[in-house]
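F.,

This is the one I mentioned.
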């Protein structure tokens, strides 16, 4: 949910506000992760280093929107590559190499096609999920999600939720007036909530709406409009969103407090 989208009678989630009995954050971390190198990563990394040469500096990401980014300077090629490509076939890797070497300026069709039909390999998704951190300084997202799940979804959703990472640097690209307060990552099946909301000044009813909004995305998926365009907030979505009991109240709170949220974001850095 990015601003400005979104609460009625207050329903209280008493044990949510402060959570001193928080479980260890990585209670479900796969212990072998720390010892076993990722064989898929080593394989593609070896191939790329061999074919591209010494100047290559390779970083893997779980990013789906930016599948590959390349920076060239002083004989070095910095490549950030999505783990989507860990299971790429030989042709795709061949074309990736050509692209990294600058032999072709456009992202090759094979690479685009591979990315389009691929998801993150399950072991990567599992690792990312094991790092989920739902227990904040003020709010425990797992408890909030559980409460929303019970109230609006008959407890039917299997929810992965985490506080997002603190922004690494100020993003000026999109100006300072936009903030993504919630996000449903379909590849990981993970709801992320912006850390700026982990604050005593943010009412739990508002945070509840952010979570509810993202869970609606999880439940409804993205529909295609008449022209085949993806529609995330179609009429069905908007109707269901208003089912949230404090919808109007929370939207009004957001309107009054958006500037504060935007400003506080920079203090997180
Ligand atoms: Zn949304």
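My design for it:
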């Amino acid at each position: 949910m990015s601003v400005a989208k979104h609460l009625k009678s207050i329903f209280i989630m008493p044990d949510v506000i402060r959570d001193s009995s928080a479980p260890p954050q990585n209670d479900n971390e796969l212990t072998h992760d720390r010892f076993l190198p990722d064989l898929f990563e080593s394989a593609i990394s070896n191939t790329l280093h061999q074919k591209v040469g010494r100047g290559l500096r390779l970083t893997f990401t779980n990013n789906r929107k930016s599948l590959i980014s390349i920076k060239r300077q002083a004989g070095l090629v910095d490549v950030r590559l999505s783990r989507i490509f860990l299971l790429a076939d030989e042709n795709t890797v061949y074309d990736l190499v050509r692209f990294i070497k600058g032999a072709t300026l456009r992202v090759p069709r094979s690479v685009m096609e591979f990315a389009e039909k691929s998801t993150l390999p399950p072991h990567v998704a599992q690792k990312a999920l094991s790092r989920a951190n739902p227990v904040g300084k003020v709010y425990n997202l797992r408890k909030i999600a559980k409460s929303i799940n019970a109230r609006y979804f008959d407890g039917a959703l299997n929810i992965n939720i985490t506080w997002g990472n603190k922004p690494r640097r100020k993003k000026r690209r999109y100006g300072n007036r936009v903030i993504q307060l919630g996000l449903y990552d379909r590849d990981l099946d993970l709801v992320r909530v912006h850390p700026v909301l982990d604050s005593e000044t943010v009412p739990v009813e508002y945070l509840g709406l952010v979570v509810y909004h993202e869970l609606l995305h999880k439940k409804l998926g993205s529909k295609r409009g008449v022209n085949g365009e993806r529609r995330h907030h179609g009429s069905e979505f908007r109707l269901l969103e208003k089912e949230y009991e404090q919808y109007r109240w929370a939207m009004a709170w957001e309107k009054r407090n958006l500037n504060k949220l935007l400003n506080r974001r920079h203090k997180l850095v």
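The chain has eight helices and eight strands.

Talk soon.
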